[in-house]
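Email to the structure team, subject: Large ribosomal subunit protein bL31 model.

Hi all, the expression group asked for a predicted structure before they design truncation constructs. Nothing fancy, just the tokens so they can compare against earlier work. One-line instruction: predict Large ribosomal subunit protein bL31, return tokens.
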Amino acid sequence: MKENIHPAYGEIAVTCSCGNTFTTRSTMKKALHVEVCAACHPFYIGKQKIIDTAGRVEKFNQKYGAMRKLT
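Reply from the structure team: attached below.
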């Protein structure tokens, strides 16, 4: 391998919105925040839940809700 061309690879802390934290290795230099992890993902826990991050459904309805009334 060529030297001095690869990014630094170190440990970072990953925090999920459910409160779960773990460490992993990455080229990122700061901590990472994720919306869903293996501890709260519906596929892994066997339960369905609605994950609406930052009000995306409401934002969509505000933007395109008026169009529904026109048609």
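The radius of gyration is 19 Å. The longest strand covers residues 10-16. Ping us if the truncation boundaries need rechecking.
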